[in-house]
Amino acid sequence: MSVAPSRLRPTSSLHVTVREEILKRISNGTYQPDAPIPSTAMLGEEFGVSLITIKRALRDLQAAGMIVSVAGKGTYVKKQTRILRKLDMTAPSFEGTTMQLLSVTREKIADPVMLTFSPPREAMLCVRKTIFIDDMPFLYDSTYLSADVADEIVDEFSERLVTEALRRHNILVTNTDLIIDAAPATGQVEDVFGIPTGYPILRRFYKFSTDTADISIYGVLQAPFDRLSCSVSFPARNGRASRPGASSVGSSKHRA
Amino acid sequence: MSVAPSRLRPTSSLHVTVREEILKRISNGTYQPDAPIPSTAMLGEEFGVSLITIKRALRDLQAAGMIVSVAGKGTYVKKQTRILRKLDMTAPSFEGTTMQLLSVTREKIADPVMLTFSPPREAMLCVRKTIFIDDMPFLYDSTYLSADVADEIVDEFSERLVTEALRRHNILVTNTDLIIDAAPATGQVEDVFGIPTGYPILRRFYKFSTDTADISIYGVLQAPFDRLSCSVSFPARNGRASRPGASSVGSSKHRA
DNA sequence: GAGTGGTCTAGACCACCCT
DNA sequence: GGGTGGTCTAGACCACTCC
């Protein structure tokens, strides 16, 4: 948007033109955050296009996280608030952090990304929970534990962050492996965050190796793209390296 | 999909049922990678639903990166090949890496995420390029340089990776700041990768500080979610930390 | 009950590809 | 020319919210 506007002519299809016009109105403040935009009927009349074309444009804007439609009420401009977190900061405990246990099951790890950690192939204990910040769902966590050692600390995992739970049991994390990727929302994450299918998600797969034999923790943290991003720093790549993750980029919120 | 199938009844709408059925056929091999699936007309007949319902389902599958539709030809199952890269590994130079310069412009940095690096507010030199691996576009790079110092090395930047160009000029990187996030594809990235609007993108914002005064490099690397993911490791979080980024997760390809 | 968004349908035109 | 996907239309039903 900031690049190559190319607003010479309606570049292509009708619904794109409509979408970009609405986007423009959001950018320039014609449509205010948290306020409803005109109904599909009104927009259809204004633009002189059919309803489904309007709806198509709105659907795309929803997929881009710009608006939220509530059936029976209206369509609202989404207020953008994103949290920036340090990657190495595994136990941040922001103020206002709460969590809600969703399920505890026995499952084999099937996710192809997580399999690159070469986890045990047996069924493991799987704890799923939602992490809220200021009563807004920000993270969806799936933690996998070796089934045999987990019984005594499973309660801990359902109320605390993984790293916090480990620390409380005096288990030392010797190594943290992370894989970060993006993915379209599917299944349970859609419900947890109330987002449409295909909505971009930031995923952080983790493997915590510990000094205690047989205890390795695997899992994924997932967040909608507009809620969370993460930062790292690598000081002095040549010569002697120092503490990883010490960042000059502070943890903060910013408008996107 | 691997979680909570809940296939008791058609959970919800028709297009969802159709989508999941097609997804199932892709999973179980009924529809093979790189092979065309039946036309919308045939699918519509088979499922006994209207064409636009089929098209809706296919559009969602496209947004999820499962299929590719080519107008006038057909719809194909996408072969999943993803590259895993280490985060700290800024100059990998894989075999088969080529790049194509797209533009060199003077621009102010406007992206709100990049502004968290607090870059200079003046117009900077902006070099945009596409990075190919095995003739497939994998990365879209936008690099911002201080306009005054860049003239002599701008050619370098258009043919090489940022870090390589710096090394060739004996400029030492003293600090690397990264911000990783996900975002829906918009504008130029859609064209570069041939992906639809809203397609999940993995973004890696970077800031390279150097030992040479006044030279800091800012930029973004963007890749479709199904092409690239990245890994880091943090050994020994307590006590003395050692080399950052030394990873037990190898660089490799895997099927998703 | 009026208004909203979500879904579904039947039918149409176009641009494109392949034969 | 026949097949494909992409777009657009008009019209309909539903579930929901708000008054």
TrEMBL record, chains A, B:
SMART domains assigned to the protein according to its UniProt record, in alphabetical order: HTH_GNTR (SM00345)
Transmembrane segments: none
Disordered: annotated segments: 237-256
Transcription regulation is among the record's keywords: yes
Domain of life: Bacteria
Pfam family, one: GntR
Keywords: DNA-binding, Transcription, Transcription regulation
MF-aspect GO terms: DNA binding; DNA-binding transcription factor activity
GO biological process: negative regulation of DNA-templated transcription
Keyword check for Transport: no
CDD domains: WHTH_GntR
Every HTH gntR-type domain range: 12-80
PANTHER family in alphabetical order: MANNOSYL-D-GLYCERATE TRANSPORT/METABOLISM SYSTEM REPRESSOR MNGR-RELATED, MANNOSYL-D-GLYCERATE TRANSPORT_METABOLISM SYSTEM REPRESSOR MNGR-RELATED
Protein name, per record: GntR family transcriptional regulator
Native species: Bradyrhizobium centrolobii
